[in-house]
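**Reference record**
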Amino acid sequence: MHKTRRFIDLSLKIEPAPGPEHQLLQIKHEEHHETAEYMMMRFQCRREDLPKGLGWANDYITLGTHVGTHIDAPWHYHPTSEGKRAKTIDEVPTEWFYGDGVVIDMRHKKPGELIATSDLEEALDKISYRIKPFDIVLVMTGADRLWGTMDYWSKFPGLGRESTLWLCNQGVKVMGTDTAGWDRPFAAMVEEFKRTGDSSVLWGAHFAGIEREYCQIEKLTNLDLLPPNGFKVACFPIKVSGGSAGWARPVAIIEE
């Protein structure tokens, strides 16, 4: 039987949106009529030598590597990982970023709640799936529907140190989420730290990368369009020299 291949874009558009200061970006678009003079100079031609007297379109963008859908490198979490210098995004093995995908449905978790190891295990039991090494694990919370609002930055659940290490111990090298961050929102972590005095709750999921080397994708979308498993994910990051992260356009590939 002939199979068809369907592609699902899992990335957000790079665009201005409400958010904290470190997430701001600037985009300057040069339109065709604005570049005609430059093209005339470079090609030593007249305006009538250009199609309809127009030049090329161009764009200039200023943004951080953690703006938009991106992949965090181990270097983002700490200078060392597994007792060695942590890898920057241009040093992470390419083969990590293509593999079998699995969606873990956490849409029942409330904003600020911790996604524990037991939550992951229960969700996997429901879909009768056992994680294998180099699976790309995508945690679905539904928070991507808040994109474009300030709530996007604070209304989501997140993983912690133990649940992140559990995934790493299954052989997972790349994991991702449809929220603004892999950990819980800052306010939830701060509240627990003040209440308990336990500093391990502060950015615990990210700091798990000190013990086990892994990458995480943040700001995914469209995970609800995917089956629980049985698809491939391609999510290669841009090689920013020495970067703590790189922008990516993750795509799910489903054969039907």
